[in-house]
Amino acid sequence: MRGLKSMVDSADSQRAFCRKKAAEAPHDAESAAVLARSEDICRQARENYERTRKKLWICLPAALMGFGPIKTEEETKRHDQHRLL
Questions:
Q1: Phi-psi region for residue 60, left (φ > 0), alpha (ψ -120 to 50) or beta?
Q2: What is the DSSP annotation of the chain?
Q3: Is the pTM of this model over 0.90?
Q4: What is the mean pLDDT of each run of 10 residues along the chain (85 residues)?
Q5: Which among 18, 22, 30, 58 is placed 20 to 30 Å from 41, CA to CA?
């Protein structure tokens, strides 16, 4: 689980970097393509983590070790907005 969580964290940071680069050059097709691949990798990493975490023989040990669900960006933004209210 640690390896999968690390993969998700790494994909998130890579995606953030790609978003920053794409924002700096909004008309650069190559930056947009790299960002799209990065977002796809991030989605796949999250899906793999969640699929593994929900397996019956992994679910309880993972929960006891503190591996919970990973919020999507939309969920995180929604949570932050509610917290500010």
A1: alpha
A2: -HHHHHHHHHHHHHHHHHHHHHHHSTT-HHHHHHHHHHHHHHHHHHHHHHHHHTSHHHHHHHHHTT--PPPPHHHHHHHHHHHH-
A3: no
A4: 92 93 90 93 94 89 86 66 58
A5: 58
